[in-house]
């Protein structure tokens, strides 16, 4: 919500994410470094989405309260 208020747009498509993931993975293999990143389990993705929705609702409510206080 905060980034939306700033009109900051951030969207990474799945294909773009995958592209850079594999580029970084290939690079790390060339320099003999381990690349421990793995795809995030679905349960974790859903948990993060739920938490993000909760925070977004909270911030919306706080923003509305602030606007109401300023108008009174």
Task: Describe the SSE topology.
Elements: H1 2-5, H2 14-30, H3 42-71
Please describe what this structure looks like.
The chain is mostly helical and 72 residues long. The protein has one domain. Helices cover 71% and strands 0% of the residues. The chain contains three helices and no strands. The longest helix has 30 residues. The relative contact order is 0.10. The model has no long low-confidence stretch (mean pLDDT 81).
Output the keywords.
mainly alpha, elongated
The average pLDDT value, as a whole number, equals: 81
Number of strands: 0
Helix content: over 70%
H-E order: HHH
Number of helices: 3
Uncertain runs with pLDDT below 50, 5 residues or more? none
Query: Overall 3D geometry?
Result: elongated
Helix/strand/pairing category? mainly alpha
Major sheet description: none
Compose a concise summary of this entry.
This protein is mainly alpha-helical. Helix content is 71%, strand content 0%.
């Amino acid at each position: 919500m905060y980034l939306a208020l700033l009109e900051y747009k951030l969207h990474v498509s799945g294909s773009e994410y995958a592209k850079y993931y594999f580029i970084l993975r290939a690079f790390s293999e060339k320099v003999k470094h381990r690349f421990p990143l793995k795809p995030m389990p679905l349960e974790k993705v859903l948990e993060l989405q739920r938490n993000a929705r909760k925070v977004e609702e909270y911030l919306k409510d706080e923003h509305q309260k602030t606007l109401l206080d300023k108008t009174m």
